[in-house]
């Protein structure tokens, strides 16, 4: 693919709304191709992608099996109004619901939409309806659930709400356990327990503003969680945290809504990241990698008593393109493909190999203050030379240099695509293809070493 980059950027500056994108580098990068773990610029330079469209393309760019399924569906039944049924909608819902019942012992139903934020909106309707109109939610500091009005109300960043008026129903935000930055003198588990205990204190009496002991009712309907924080910096909580939190919620009739939009579909080595923490969700929201980025399909699973047709009747929500046949065919193929083998083991082994390499890299660069992760959801926190003070400026240089496409690997030009997250925007959040090879991980580590060395010198 050839194009005039200068003219395209000039036209984008004049004709495109900047409200629907984020320009992380100046000038913005324009890519012309992709395959496997790589993006390609107009000159054909490979860029090893370690963020894969924010974890939407978990199974590699141009995955042949999934592309073939999309073409097959395109030729058979590409379009149908959502008031009618088609086989793969039903089959995909059955697959997800039966998997959930097997794991958690609870029957439930699956509800589709388009895009993660839209599925969050639907979950808010499910929760409000099930709790007789309660509109207040708990959520975490550092949590991200989308940028629609409803999703913004439970996303902790004020900057997403600042220009859009008063959000009277915005969540009450609770601290998320951040092991690398925990208080001195505490183990990670003690730190997690302390947060749970402080949250439980809210229910001790009526004067802590959330609980009526006379009626045994909470003013808040649900707690929205990401089992591993995404935009917040791929923060992995201590293993005891969610068990303690869920007990408090269950004791007081507060629902747990699990946001698996970024961490779902095997990113952590299990289909859902919440499976790693020993708790059962009441509602689970998914999107992104369901279709490997080939179709904007999202959805939610909810317990039967929250979503059966008697309590959540037809028309409770609607989207023209929800459960479209291209998306559901792809989603069903993703589920089949990843259940034909021990896919989770593959992800966990690749993740352990990558994490070990990052730990070796950390020993050579004191500016890498922390590395951690689960499966192939990995993090590297970039700091000053003290190994703790956040260093956003250094990471910004790394991102810019990676996108210049002037790194070298085995005598060839390379680029590196990184994603930035974290409370201080100093964390590399690694979400490589789940199909990434050992040789590609080795390449990633060489390029990262090269990149941080260059950034420190510049």
From TrEMBL:
PROSITE patterns for the chain: AA_TRANSFER_CLASS_3
Coiled-coil ranges from the UniProt annotation: none
Record-linked Gene3D superfamilies: Aspartate Aminotransferase, domain 1, Type I PLP-dependent aspartate aminotransferase-like (Major domain)
Protein's recorded name: Aminotransferase class III-fold pyridoxal phosphate-dependent enzyme
Family of the protein in this entry: Belongs to the class-III pyridoxal-phosphate-dependent aminotransferase family.
Example GO molecular function: transaminase activity
Cofactor: pyridoxal 5'-phosphate
SUPFAM superfamilies: PLP-dependent transferases
UniProt source species: Comamonas koreensis
This protein's UniProt keywords: Aminotransferase, Pyridoxal phosphate, Transferase
